Amino acid sequence: MKNSSTVCLFAEDTVCALCTAPGGALAILRISGPDALKTGNAVWRGRSVLFRGNARKMLLGKLYSDDPASPGEPCLAVFMPGPKSYTGEDTVELHCHGGAFAPKRLLETVLASGIRLAEPGEFTKRAFLNGKMDLTQAEAVADLIAAKSESAVHLAEKQLSGRIGNNIRQARETLIHLLSEVESRMDFPEEELDWMSPSELTAGLQTLGGSFRKMLQSAEHGVLLRDGLRVVIAGRPNAGKSSLLNSLLGFERAIVTEIPGTTRDTLAEFVSLRGIPVMLTDTAGLREEAGDPIEQLGIRRSRDSMRTAQFIFWVLDASTPETAADSAEHLKNHLPLPADAIVVWNKTELDTSPQVLPALPGLSGVRVSALKGDGLDALLDLFAERVWKGSDVSESECEVSARHAALLEDALSSVERAVPEIEAESWELAAACMRGALAALGSITGEEVSPDMLDEIFSRFCIGK
What we know:
The protein is flat, with a radius of gyration of 29 Å. The strands form 2 sheets. The chain has a 7-stranded mixed sheet. Strands 9-10-8-11-12-13 form a 6-stranded mixed sheet, sandwiched between helices. It folds into 3 domains: 4-133, Probable tRNA modification gtpase trme, domain 1 (Gyrase A, domain 2), CATH 3.30.1360.120; 150-218 and 398-446, tRNA modification GTPase MnmE domain 2 (Four Helix Bundle (Hemerythrin (Met), subunit A)), CATH 1.20.120.430; 229-393, P-loop containing nucleotide triphosphate hydrolases (Rossmann fold, 3-Layer(aba) Sandwich). It has helices spanning 4-7, 36-43, 101-112, 122-129, 135-146, 150-160, 163-187, 198-217, 219-227, 241-249, 293-308, 321-334, 376-388, 402-423, 427-445, 451-458, and strands at residues 15-18, 26-32, 44-46, 59-63, 74-80, 91-97, 116-117, 229-235, 267-273, 276-282, 311-317, 341-346, 364-367. Helix 14 packs antiparallel against helix 15 (427-445). It starts with a helix and ends in a 7-residue tail after the last helix. It has 16 helices and 13 strands. Strand 1 (15-18) and strand 2 form a beta hairpin. The protein is of the alpha/beta class and 465 residues long.
């Protein structure tokens, strides 16, 4: 359903933006609004003008140029009449060569026709305001663009399909039905109507509360899959931290030498580990006496990274019994506690006579050879087990975001407060609590949301989406 009070803001407004990143082989520019067709025909020339008779057909033509010496750049154009378009408005897309200059010239030509540049996320915002999607689906568009792993993409696709929105709307419909029962008792207190009993009303609210709790259980997984995890590789110099980074990334990101202290600064890369998006950071080796001011600065940055890390791979040298014992002692003195960490016993390829490694109470450990890649599967399996804490990520139909979780908490709290009021037959207080829950649920799907909240959500989008 359209939000008519907001759609009118765009009624006479036509916008455009490039929808593709610079540097690709092709560039797509989208024009949306009441003057989209007029603008498209003003900047593009083909065998026929764009009109409803050739809507949704890709037509070859050229960009208009007022320079008689210019033959015009080849360009494809397609007209998509509203409401059957992404934004729900008349839309024209122009497809030209990519690179740096051609898309820039196309955008300048379209803007010169008198329309304005779209704001970040404005196309998706218009789609939401015109009833093409609810707010959870609109947020999923941004999640899909920002996804850093296959799991994050899958999560965004589930949300984009409307799973969260459908669940919330069903809960809202149930709550509206229960609220109508409560309000009818307020409106007709002297009548003997076929009302639901207080026990039936409270049972309905408790069932709703259970569904809210189930959705809230998925919030931690949802935040993790959307935002990723900060993982730091730490340990003494020459323990093989950079070799481990390279092995986990699958390419040579860090310089590796036998000289201790080669890594002087932090190196960070995004990677997907067992489907978990991770910002993996290699750090300078930690030791008590640094050789020079640059290494000292690197060590300070290593400690800063460890303090903000959500997980630590602490690399220890297992090449000989002596180095293993020394490494274990160093870990006990430097690993920040409490820390969510895995001990990585590295350089096992140098251990010709495998020894019993020193005991490290309370810490999980795994033997690897970062140089050869041995033991990495065991490390990643242990990492995934520790992150998910033994739970099955596939159990949830769709993981809610942090914003959804906060509003679900409000809805749950309001429903729980309504139960004792109904038991006491305090109908006005019960109704007030239930209306609060309705408002929280409506804010999730966008049925009840302030303009400021919409601006805050869509400001996180990039231009062209």
